[in-house]
Design a protein that fits this description.
Number of helices: 5
Radius of gyration: 20 Å
Mean pLDDT: 85
Low-confidence stretches: 1-14
Distance between the termini: 32 Å
Largest sheet: none
Oligomer: single chain
Helix content: over 70%
Structural class: mainly alpha
Protein backbone atom coordinates (compact mmCIF):
# COMPACT_ATOMS: atom_id res chain seq x y z
CA UNK A 1 0.00 0.00 0.00
CA UNK A 2 2.72 2.44 0.95
CA UNK A 3 4.59 1.56 -2.22
CA UNK A 4 1.52 2.39 -4.36
CA UNK A 5 0.96 5.68 -2.57
CA UNK A 6 4.63 6.54 -2.77
CA UNK A 7 4.70 5.80 -6.51
CA UNK A 8 1.62 7.96 -7.13
CA UNK A 9 3.02 10.72 -4.96
CA UNK A 10 6.34 10.67 -6.80
CA UNK A 11 4.53 10.88 -10.14
CA UNK A 12 2.64 13.96 -8.95
CA UNK A 13 5.76 15.59 -7.51
CA UNK A 14 7.66 14.93 -10.74
CA UNK A 15 4.82 16.45 -12.75
CA UNK A 16 4.62 19.50 -10.51
CA UNK A 17 8.42 19.77 -10.33
CA UNK A 18 8.79 19.69 -14.10
CA UNK A 19 6.06 22.27 -14.51
CA UNK A 20 7.58 24.49 -11.83
CA UNK A 21 11.09 24.27 -13.34
CA UNK A 22 10.07 25.18 -16.83
CA UNK A 23 7.12 27.43 -16.09
CA UNK A 24 4.94 28.95 -18.74
CA UNK A 25 7.46 30.60 -21.07
CA UNK A 26 6.63 31.91 -24.51
CA UNK A 27 5.40 29.04 -26.63
CA UNK A 28 5.17 26.60 -23.73
CA UNK A 29 1.98 25.34 -22.18
CA UNK A 30 0.57 27.46 -19.44
CA UNK A 31 -1.57 24.85 -17.69
CA UNK A 32 -1.11 21.17 -16.84
CA UNK A 33 -2.64 18.68 -19.26
CA UNK A 34 -5.79 16.73 -18.53
CA UNK A 35 -3.68 13.62 -17.91
CA UNK A 36 -1.48 15.47 -15.40
CA UNK A 37 -4.54 16.71 -13.54
CA UNK A 38 -5.98 13.19 -13.45
CA UNK A 39 -2.69 11.86 -12.07
CA UNK A 40 -2.77 14.52 -9.36
CA UNK A 41 -6.39 13.68 -8.57
CA UNK A 42 -5.67 9.96 -8.24
CA UNK A 43 -2.72 10.63 -5.95
CA UNK A 44 -4.71 13.18 -3.93
CA UNK A 45 -7.71 10.88 -3.42
CA UNK A 46 -5.52 7.85 -2.67
CA UNK A 47 -3.54 9.76 -0.06
CA UNK A 48 -6.51 11.55 1.51
CA UNK A 49 -8.59 8.38 1.71
CA UNK A 50 -5.59 6.23 2.69
CA UNK A 51 -6.77 3.57 0.25
CA UNK A 52 -5.32 0.11 0.42
CA UNK A 53 -4.53 -1.46 -2.97
CA UNK A 54 -7.64 -3.64 -2.63
CA UNK A 55 -9.82 -0.63 -1.78
CA UNK A 56 -8.36 1.37 -4.65
CA UNK A 57 -9.04 -1.46 -7.07
CA UNK A 58 -12.72 -1.49 -6.05
CA UNK A 59 -13.13 2.26 -5.50
CA UNK A 60 -11.86 3.74 -8.77
CA UNK A 61 -14.20 1.97 -11.21
CA UNK A 62 -17.25 2.87 -9.08
CA UNK A 63 -16.11 6.45 -8.53
CA UNK A 64 -15.17 6.99 -12.19
CA UNK A 65 -18.53 5.70 -13.43
CA UNK A 66 -20.39 8.08 -11.11
CA UNK A 67 -18.07 10.95 -12.00
CA UNK A 68 -18.69 10.47 -15.74
CA UNK A 69 -22.46 10.50 -15.24
CA UNK A 70 -22.25 13.61 -13.06
CA UNK A 71 -19.91 15.35 -15.52
CA UNK A 72 -22.43 14.86 -18.33
CA UNK A 73 -25.09 16.53 -16.21
CA UNK A 74 -22.69 19.32 -15.16
CA UNK A 75 -22.15 20.12 -18.85
CA UNK A 76 -25.91 20.30 -19.27
CA UNK A 77 -26.11 22.66 -16.27
CA UNK A 78 -23.43 24.95 -17.73
CA UNK A 79 -25.14 24.92 -21.13
CA UNK A 80 -28.49 25.74 -19.54
CA UNK A 81 -26.94 28.62 -17.58
CA UNK A 82 -25.60 30.02 -20.85
CA UNK A 83 -29.08 29.71 -22.36
CA UNK A 84 -30.59 31.52 -19.37
CA UNK A 85 -28.05 34.34 -19.60
CA UNK A 86 -28.63 34.67 -23.35
CA UNK A 87 -32.41 34.76 -22.83
CA UNK A 88 -32.04 37.47 -20.19
CA UNK A 89 -29.84 39.58 -22.47
CA UNK A 90 -31.71 39.11 -25.73
CA UNK A 91 -33.57 41.91 -27.44
CA UNK A 92 -36.50 41.76 -27.53
CA UNK A 93 -36.66 40.24 -24.06
CA UNK A 94 -37.48 36.56 -23.71
CA UNK A 95 -40.96 35.83 -22.44
CA UNK A 96 -41.62 34.79 -18.87
CA UNK A 97 -42.70 31.37 -20.18
CA UNK A 98 -39.35 30.91 -21.99
CA UNK A 99 -37.37 31.95 -18.92
CA UNK A 100 -39.47 29.70 -16.66
CA UNK A 101 -38.90 26.74 -19.02
CA UNK A 102 -35.14 27.32 -18.92
CA UNK A 103 -35.19 27.61 -15.13
CA UNK A 104 -37.14 24.35 -14.85
CA UNK A 105 -34.55 22.69 -17.12
CA UNK A 106 -31.76 24.08 -14.90
CA UNK A 107 -33.33 22.91 -11.62
CA UNK A 108 -34.11 19.48 -13.07
CA UNK A 109 -30.46 19.08 -14.11
CA UNK A 110 -29.32 20.09 -10.61
CA UNK A 111 -31.67 17.52 -9.10
CA UNK A 112 -30.30 14.88 -11.47
CA UNK A 113 -26.75 15.74 -10.43
CA UNK A 114 -27.67 15.43 -6.75
CA UNK A 115 -29.33 12.08 -7.43
CA UNK A 116 -26.23 10.81 -9.25
CA UNK A 117 -24.04 11.91 -6.34
CA UNK A 118 -26.30 10.10 -3.88
CA UNK A 119 -26.24 6.95 -6.01
CA UNK A 120 -22.47 7.16 -6.35
CA UNK A 121 -22.11 7.55 -2.58
CA UNK A 122 -24.31 4.49 -2.06
CA UNK A 123 -22.16 2.47 -4.46
CA UNK A 124 -18.88 3.72 -2.99
CA UNK A 125 -20.09 2.92 0.53
CA UNK A 126 -20.47 -0.70 -0.59
CA UNK A 127 -16.74 -0.94 -1.39
CA UNK A 128 -15.29 1.41 1.26
CA UNK A 129 -16.03 1.99 4.93
CA UNK A 130 -18.77 4.61 5.37
CA UNK A 131 -16.38 7.25 6.74
CA UNK A 132 -14.09 6.90 3.71
CA UNK A 133 -17.08 6.94 1.34
CA UNK A 134 -18.35 10.16 2.95
CA UNK A 135 -14.88 11.69 2.75
CA UNK A 136 -14.67 10.77 -0.93
CA UNK A 137 -17.76 12.93 -1.49
CA UNK A 138 -15.98 15.96 -0.05
CA UNK A 139 -12.66 15.44 -1.80
CA UNK A 140 -13.82 16.51 -5.25
CA UNK A 141 -14.35 20.08 -4.02
CA UNK A 142 -11.20 20.02 -1.91
CA UNK A 143 -9.18 18.90 -4.95
CA UNK A 144 -10.79 21.56 -7.15
CA UNK A 145 -9.86 24.31 -4.67
CA UNK A 146 -6.30 22.95 -4.36
CA UNK A 147 -5.96 22.86 -8.16
CA UNK A 148 -7.20 26.45 -8.52
CA UNK A 149 -4.68 27.64 -5.91
CA UNK A 150 -1.94 25.71 -7.67
CA UNK A 151 -2.81 27.23 -11.05
CA UNK A 152 -2.87 30.76 -9.63
CA UNK A 153 0.78 30.46 -8.53
Amino acid sequence: MKRTILTLLLAVVATIGTYAQHGPHAGEKKYPTHEEILSQKIAFFTQELDLTPEEAQQFWPVYNAGWKKAETVRREIRHTLKEINAALKQEPAASDAQINALMEKYFKAQQTEAQIQAETYAEVSKVLPVAKAAKACTLEEKFRVMLIKQLRK
